[in-house]
Structure formats: structure tokens, C-alpha cells
Amino acid sequence: MTQTSASNPLQNSRIKIDSIDKKLIALLGERERVVKEIGIYKAKNNIPALQADRFKQVLEKTIEAGKQEGLSATFITELMNAIHKESLRIEEEIKAQKQ
Ligand SMILES: C=C(O[C@@H]1C=C(C(=O)O)C=C[C@H]1O)C(=O)O
């Protein structure tokens, strides 16, 4: 039987998590739309998608920001590597469309 929020103490927190997850995904969509703009510029100007120095900076900044939120460097590294992988996929897709 489905529990009501009064009978399930986790319900309110889970509603909050669902709402936060929705915002996280919307923010990731916004980030990747900016990556798309960069990808279009790079494709036009023959610039490689992968910019290791820039990603190193991104990683350093996000690890520091994560530290302020009590998040481990390992978690932030895994998260940002996953985001970066998606950025490169999107940029390579743009490049392939331009051929
Ligand atoms: C968005 C860029 O392209 C790639 C993606 C990055 C990212 O998602 O943060 C960073 C560096 C690049 O490897 C960029 O060059 O700035």
C-alpha cells in the first residue's frame, strides 16, 4: 500500500530531492548548451575539442568549490570527468555534422 507523507517520514525529503535533481539536470542542460556554442566556434576554426589545460582549471575550481560543500575530491573528479566526457561527445558530434 502507498504511504501518505504523514505515515512516511521520508516522503517530504524525497520530494525535495526530486525537485533538486530536476534543477541539477536543467543546469547540466544549460552548461552543455554553452559547450555547444564553444563546439560550433571550434569546428569553424579547426580547434580541437579537448583542451586539457582548460579542463584542469575547471577541475581545480570545482574541487575547491566542492570542498566548501563537504564533498570529496574523488566525487567531484568523477562527476566532472563524466560531464567533460559528455561535453566532448557533443563537440565531436558538432564537428562530424560540419563534415
Ligand atoms: C568547453 C570546452 O571544451 C572542452 C570541455 C570542457 C568542459 O566541459 O569544461 C573543458 C575543456 C575542453 O576539453 C572548452 O574548451 O572550454
TrEMBL record:
Ranges for domain Chorismate mutase: 4-95
InterPro entries listed in its UniProt record: Chorismate_II_sf (IPR036263), Chorismate_mutase-related (IPR051331), CM_dom_sf (IPR036979), CM_II_prokaryot (IPR002701)
Keywords: Isomerase
Entry keyword annotation includes Ion transport: no
The protein's Enzyme Commission number: 5.4.99.5
The protein's name: chorismate mutase
Record organism: Mucilaginibacter angelicae
